[in-house]
From TrEMBL:
<dbReference type="Pfam" id="PF13561">
    <property type="entry name" value="adh_short_C2"/>
</dbReference>
<dbReference type="InterPro" id="IPR002347">
    <property type="entry name" value="SDR_fam"/>
</dbReference>
<dbReference type="InterPro" id="IPR036291">
    <property type="entry name" value="NAD(P)-bd_dom_sf"/>
</dbReference>
<dbReference type="InterPro" id="IPR057326">
    <property type="entry name" value="KR_dom"/>
</dbReference>
<protein>
    <submittedName>
        <fullName>D-threitol dehydrogenase</fullName>
    </submittedName>
</protein>
<dbReference type="GO" id="GO:0016616">
    <property type="term" value="F:oxidoreductase activity, acting on the CH-OH group of donors, NAD or NADP as acceptor"/>
</dbReference>
<feature type="domain" description="Ketoreductase">
    <location>
        <begin position="13"/>
        <end position="189"/>
    </location>
</feature>
<keyword id="KW-0560">Oxidoreductase</keyword>
<dbReference type="InterPro" id="IPR020904">
    <property type="entry name" value="Sc_DH/Rdtase_CS"/>
</dbReference>
<comment type="similarity">
    <text>Belongs to the short-chain dehydrogenases/reductases (SDR) family.</text>
</comment>
């Protein structure tokens, strides 16, 4: 096996993807499975088990869990360790976008955004990180957003949560890097998942595309490839970074 092939071979690796039943999470799971990984998909969607069964290979697991529940996350991580013995890669992908002008956003929408977009990735990283620290190795990839870098109208809670994810990523990378774990983030532009297509349909989407130097939105598979790279042997010296996949939107 060449050095290149070895770097991107995930045979024998256990990969946990939150929000893995659809969209970016499903694309990430699909790609890792194709590279030989054992996948665990965690999602509130009851169909997550069926999604796991469609992945290349066998023995993948779909777990139904609410990421806002600490006890549910503890149970999920414990069951993964019991079944597979370790978690080699964590992709924190689950997220929500509750949008409204800052002067009218409800406290409930703010709290839900922070619970799913920030508290949950912290809790999962903490729980899985403890297991990775025991093993002396691991890769964590957090899904942030271009909204972590630039202001977007109506996105006050979303922007705040994603900016915090980037900061959290840096702290975890600093603390855990010396102990064999790298932690990085990915900040995509709009991604053409089913939800993304609906949210940015019509002229509002076309107007935004005209502001992106590449004149298009990202595909889920492109974000999955970024995650695969950051989790691979090729990225062993990439730690605490925020990989922006936005077609150049935030360089302007």
């Amino acid at each position: 096996m060449s050095a290149f092939d070895a770097a991107f071979d995930f045979t024998g690796k256990t990969v946990l993807v939150t929000g893995g039943a659809a969209g970016i999470g499903r694309a990430v799971a699909t790609l890792f499975a194709e590279r030989g990984a054992q996948l665990v998909l965690l999602d509130r969607d009851p169909g997550v088990g069926a999604v796991a069964s469609t992945l290349a290979g066998s023995g993948h697991l779909g777990l139904v869990a609410d990421v806002t529940s600490k006890s549910a996350l503890e149970q999920a991580v414990a069951s993964i360790i019991e079944r597979y013995g370790r978690i080699d890669v964590l992709v924190n992908n689950a997220g929500v976008a509750r949008l409204a002008p800052a002067d009218s956003l409800t406290v409930d929408d703010w709290d839900l955004t922070m619970a799913i977009n920030l508290r949950a990735p912290f809790l999962v990283s903490q729980m899985v990180g403890r297991e990775m620290l025991k093993a002396g190795s691991g890769r964590i990839v957090n899904l942030a957003s271009q909204a972590a870098i630039v202001a977007i109208d109506g996105h006050v809670a979303y922007c705040a949560s994603k900016a915090a994810i980037v900061s959290m990523t840096k702290v975890l990378a600093l603390e855990w890097g010396p102990r064999g774990i790298t932690v990085n983030a990915i900040s995509p532009t709009v991604v053409e998942t089913e939800l993304g297509k609906k949210a940015w349909a019509g002229e509002v989407g076309e107007a935004l595309k005209r502001q992106i130097p590449t004149r298009r939105f990202a595909q889920p598979e492109e974000i999955a490839m970024a995650a695969l790279y950051l989790a691979s042997g090729a990225a062993g010296m990439v730690n605490g970074e925020n990989l922006v996949v936005d077609g150049g939107f935030t360089i302007q």
